[in-house]
Structures are given as structure tokens and as C-alpha cells.
Write a structure and sequence with these properties.
Blueprint (H helix, E strand, L loop, with lengths): L22 E5 L2 H4 L7 H6 L16 H15 L3 E5 L2 H4 L8 H16 L3 E5 L7 H5 L8 H11 L1 H4 L5 E6 L1 H4 L2 H7 L1 H7 L6 H21 L4 E8 L2 E3 L4 H17 L7 E5 L3 E4 L2 E2 L19 H12 L5 E6 L6 H20 L4 E7 L17 E3 L6 E3 L1 H12 L6
Parallel strand pairs: 1-2, 1-11, 2-3, 3-4, 4-5, 5-7, 6-8, 7-10, 10-11
Antiparallel strand pairs: 8-9, 12-13
Helix pairs in contact: 7-12, 14-15, 15-16
Family: Belongs to the glycosyl hydrolase 1 family.
Protein name: Beta-glucosidase/6-phospho-beta-glucosidase/beta-galactosidase
Keywords: Glycosidase, Hydrolase
């Protein structure tokens, strides 16, 4: 079924109430907030002289020690869900040697969330891998899938009780591009559009996801398993429909097709990508841009949800990331209203959307820099004191009301 946007409903229409169990919360990633993840490949890259990484993660937001404070903020805001990742490099810092202490640490986080009335949404792989895994060749090395599945199986003490939603791999489409991005440089790929994902890596990641899904179901068949995709919201200009479809397939749609048998699929959307007959286009002159150089386009998330719903042949959708990097928090509030309105319209047109998790809970390490501030909560880089922004309180107010607002 093709779902088209409804544009003729008047603003006086009552907002659509969200279904029971709707996930209202925020997301984080371990390497971006924990600090001192010294056994990971990214830490090695950050601390290698001459690497393309300008700024190392260091202490990050010190959330490894302050996770309880972060969860308390979510509760105080009135949110009900917290998506966080557990770090493979901490759990298996050297090949075959698993840390019971780190498994216990992440289990304390799960228990801490449950005790506070928060539902933990746990991601098992969010970009980083152990240094030893990278050194042996990463995802395309022999036995990579088996090694990942072994790690997944060892997370049973963390996810086996009280965790209803687990993400196997975050944004595998971006993971498959990492080699090309590293060789080109981040600025170069922004100029030329996303590079072509490595085909061998794509194939392995799909295999790893399906194998991990089976391993998680063996731990507890009631766990809802999915993975999350970086949605680019490709919009074809007249005459560029075929170019757009060809461009989108290896960069997004092949990963969505792999989610057709999942319990849910994560939509992660920030802006749109207009595509002409020669490929992706820059934002039009004069449009509002974020600190990351993205067009301010809040309705992208609703369009991403529709596309995902169609390509997956109706796998339920959870928005696992959506946000923007700005210094003016009033723009984040405006973006939030526009994004939720676009989701409300998609739901009214039949798209099964089961949650909204904002990116990010905290201003954090954005893979080479602390400058892009995506957080609902500001973090003092010296003292680590947390300061919820007006946008955090606004999302909490909306969540408490149980319905999407009209902008």
C-alpha cells in the first residue's frame, strides 16, 4: 500500500492521540556520552597522531558514572523511555575475554531504568567495535558474524530480563560507508553526497543482523528486535525519479528490505535530500541551516516513516533518532513541533508508528567534535553539570499529554 501525505485536513482537527504503550523519550550512544572508551576502535583513531579526527572524545559527558542522573532527568521531564547503547569494547576488551564487571554495570543501568519507571531500549552496536575486532579486518574479516553473535549471546545478563526492545546494529547503512567516508573526509562526502556503501560490508551486516536477531530471540522470544536506519528522505525532482531510486537502493532501501521480518524498524531522520538528474543537490540558497549544515526541514521524519513503512512492507516503525544541532533552542522547539505534526499526519494515514525518541538526550561527542549541539540537555564540559533546555520540558509536556501538538 502506498501512503501519501494528507494535506487538506484543517488545523482545527483534534490532534491524534498516540496508541497505548507509545515510546516517548530520548536516545544516546555509549561512545558519545560515557567517556574513556579506551578499548574501542574510535578511541584508537582519536588518539592516533595525524588522524582526521580533530577532537577526541575524552571524558565525553561522563555518563558512564552519571547514568543515574541522566535517567532522573528523563523521569523529571515526564518521559517514559531511554534508548542507550552498551559498549562491545568494554564487554569484550580483548578477543574472547568478557568482563563480568562491565556486564554488571550495564545490567545496573537496565535495573536503574526499570526502578525509575523508564523502559530501556538497548542498542548492541552503535558504530564502535573493539580494537581487536577492527585490527583483524572488521566486518569483512572471516568469522566476523560469528564473533558478533558470540558477543550478543553474552549480553544475556543485560537484556534477558526487563528489556522489551533491542536494536542489533545502529545505522548499518552508515557503517557500510565508513571506509569511503574515512578516505574522502567528512567534508568531501557532504559536497559529493553519500558515498556508495561497500557491497561486501552491506552483505555481512545484513547477515549479522539476522543472526543476532535469532540469538536475541533465543535469550527471550518476547524481546522486540529491530535495527535502525539513517533515513535521507530522498526527494526526486521532476525527471529524476529513476536516478533517485537507483541512488537510494544501496544507501538505504536494501537495509530496509532486510527489516521486513523484524518486530520493528528504527527511523533516524534529520533532514531531506533533494535529487536531480545528476544526483543529490545542495540545500537551496537562503534556506535555514543547522550547525551540521543540514537544511531545517522538520517534516522529514514523517516522510521517512512513510517511506520506511512502504519499503519494509509494513514493519512497525519507531522513530529512534530525530533532532537537530542548534544553539538557539527555540528552533529546536519549532523543529520538534513540526516533526511531531508530520508523524501525526503519517499515523492518520495508516503508518504504524510506535514511538518517538529524540536525538539526543545530552549535548555530546558528535564523532570528532563537540560543536554540534543536538541535546535536550546541555552539559558543562568542565563540571559535567546537566542543564535541561526548554525543548526538553516541551517534549516532556507533550509526552505527558499523550497526543501530538499542532505547530
Amino acid at each position: 500500500m502506498s501512503v501519501s501525505p494528507t494535506t487538506d485536513r484543517p488545523n482545527s482537527v483534534r490532534p491524534l492521540s498516540v496508541p497505548a504503550g507509545f515510546l516517548w523519550g530520548a536516545s544516546t550512544a555509549a561512545h558519545q556520552i560515557e567517556g574513556n572508551n579506551t578499548a574501542s576502535d574510535w578511541w584508537h583513531l582519536e588518539t592516533t597522531p595525524g588522524s582526521h579526527v580533530v577532537e577526541p572524545s575524552g571524558d565525553a559527558a561522563d555518563s558512564y558514572h552519571r547514568w543515574a542522573e541522566d535517567m532522573d532527568i528523563l523521569v523529571d521531564l515526564g518521559l517514559t523511555d531511554y534508548r542507550f547503547s552498551i559498549e562491545w569494547a568494554r564487554i569484550e576488551p580483548t578477543e574472547g575475554r568478557f568482563s563480568n564487571a562491565e556486564l554488571a554495570h550495564y545490567r545496573r543501568m537496565v535495573d536503574g531504568a526499570i526502578e525509575r519507571g523508564l523502559r530501556p531500549v538497548v542498542t548492541l552496536h552503535h558504530f564502535t567495535v573493539p580494537q581487536w575486532f577492527a585490527a583483524r579486518g572488521g566486518w569483512t574479516a572471516p568469522g566476523a558474524v560469528e564473533l558478533f553473535v558470540r558477543y550478543v549471546e553474552r549480553t544475556a545478563p543485560v537484556i534477558g530480563t526487563g528489556v522489551s526492545h533491542v536494536c542489533t546494529i545502529n545505522e548499518p547503512n552508515m557503517v557500510a560507508m565508513f571506509g569511503a567516508i574515512a578516505s574522502l573526509g567528512a567534508e568531501a562526502f557532504r559536497e559529493a553526497g553519500l558515498p556508495l556503501p561497500d557491497a561486501a560490508t552491506t552483505e555481512v551486516l545484513v547477515e549479522a543482523h539476522h543472526a543476532a536477531r535469532a540469538a536475541i530471540k533465543a535469550i527471550d522470544p518476547q524481546i522486540q528486535v529491530g535495527w535502525t536506519i539513517a533515513n535521507q528522505v530522498y526527494q526526486a525532482l521532476p525527471g529524476a525519479e529513476a536516478v533517485t531510486a537507483e541512488y537510494s537502493w544501496p544507501r538505504e532501501d536494501v537495509f530496509l528490505v532486510a527489516a521486513r521480518d523484524d518486530d520493528w524498524v528504527g527511523v533516524q531522520s534529520y533532514t531531506r535530500t533533494r535529487v536531480g538528474t545528476d544526483g543529490p543537490l545542495h540545500p537551496e540558497p537562503g534556506v535555514e541551516l543547522t550547525l551540521s549544515g543540514y537544511e531545517f526541514y522538520p517534516q522529514a521524519v514523517g516522510e521517512a516513516a512513510r517511506h520506511t513503512w512502504e519499503v519494509t512492507e509494513h514493519t512497525p516503525v519507531i522513530v529512534t533518532e530525530n533532532g537537530l544541532s542548534v544553539t538557539d533552542d527555540t528552533r529546536r522547539v519549532a523543529y520538534l513541533h513540526g516533526a511531531l505534526d508530520s508523524l501525526e499526519r503519517a499515523m492518520a494515514d495508516g503508518v504504524d508508528i510506535r514511538g518517538y525518541l529524540h536525538w539526543s538526550l545530552l549535548d555530546n561527542y558528535e564523532w570528532g567534535s563537540y560543536a554540534p549541539t543536538f541535546g535536550l540537555v546541555a552539559v558543562d564540559r568542565e563540571t559535567f553539570e546537566r542543564h535541561p533546555k526548554p525543548s526538553a520540558h516541551e517534549l516532556g509536556r507533550i509526552a505527558q499529554g499523550g497526543a501530538f501538538p499542532r505547530p
